[in-house]
Amino acid sequence: MTSHNESSHTDSGHTDSSRNEFWERVNAALDARRDPLEDARVQQLLEREPDLLDELAALQLTLSATRDVTHSASLAHAPARRRTSAFVGWAALAAGFAAIVVAARWNAPEPRDANATHPAPLALAPLFAPIPPGVLLELRATFTRTSPSGVRIEHVDLVESRSSVERRELGPQGQATLFAFAHHQPRVRQP
Amino acid sequence: MNSSAQPADEPQLALEARLAAEAPGLRAYLRRVAGVGARSAELDDLAQAVLERALRYRKSYDAARPLGAWLRTIALRVVLDQRARGLHLRESAGTLSHELAAREDATVEHRDELLRVLAPLSEVEREVLVRFHGRGETIEELAAALQLLEGTVKSHLHRARRKLAERGRTGESR
């Protein structure tokens, strides 16, 4: 066996041993996620066998495309997953809030004197006061009940601690003949 | 004029002077690497590209290393890029890569195109290659996930790379 420098040449002019050594070192570098071109021995082998650059270029192109496609595919799917899970989370949170507020409201005793429960007028916030980021401005649950006489729609505002009721009564032809709207604040605000 | 240069400019001027001194050796190296058939103008362009890249990335130069070795690494990258542009693969994987870099979305067509490029690989070679280079999984993780020895995973990975590199040797594109 002669030394690898003078061993038998392939048709393309490469020595088998040089080629094998080259790819061993390139693979070792790629396995370790290093740049093979920084390996001094790889540089020597490329200088001796420049055609190996074509092979390395072909490999680099395909690996780059593999990385891009995989990365882009994960980018394309990740937001959808995040949006779905975020939506489910917020829906569950809103449903939980609504259940708690409605249960508390229905279990609370009715005030005897409506005037006594009215809170003192609240100072209005400045109209153009900046709203801090992340503040929940509105969260409302709506309950609709139907009956032979009409439809009752109740809105419970979970942020402002108030509720409103719409009642629509139907006439003989099924058309709305009476519209009633009520708004009240059943809970006393704490000072 | 040189006496008016600020001290902060001295390292850059020193590097530029050293690069200029390395230029003839760099040109000879490029002639060997790029092939004896490379024309003079082409060699000049390559040398210019190498020096430009060296100046652009001068902060990455480790002064403890020989400047010539650092330049040779850059030279190989420049020639590699040039070869890549010249390959017929540009019509498949190369175009694919550039389009995706610009659009950052992977359509079904792009994935199909990549699958076509990876078609010479066996199923396990393809999976190992995509998971290692595409998803960044380690050899150990792949061995555990596929219930293979780490050496076997490496063998599949190395064989896959060699098969893909063969396309460059033959100039094959389709």
Described by strand count, sense and barrel closure, the largest sheet of chain A is: 4 strands, antiparallel
The CATH H-level superfamily of the largest domain in chain B is Winged helix-like DNA-binding domain superfamily/Winged helix DNA-binding domain
Shape of chain B: elongated
**Named CATH topology of the largest domain in chain B:** Arc Repressor Mutant, subunit A
Number of strands of chain A: 4
First-residue to last-residue Cα separation of chain A: 97 Å
Largest interface: A-B, 39 and 51 residues
Low-confidence stretches of chain A: 1-11, 75-81, 112-129, 187-191
**Oligomeric organization of the protein chains:** heterodimer
How far apart lie the N and C ends of chain B? 58 Å
The DSSP helix count of chain B reads: 8
Describe the protein's architecture and organization.
The complex is a heterodimer of chains A (191) and B (174). Chain A is α+β, with helices and mostly antiparallel strands. Among the domains of chain A are: 16-73, no CATH class; 108-120 and 136-191, no CATH class. Helix content of chain A is 45%, strand content 18%. Chain A has a four-stranded antiparallel β-sheet with strand order 1-2-3-4, covered by helices on one side. In chain A, helix 1 (16-31) packs antiparallel against helix 2 (40-48). Chain B has eight helices and no strands. Chain B has 174 residues and is an all-alpha fold. The interface between A and B is large, with 39 and 51 residues.
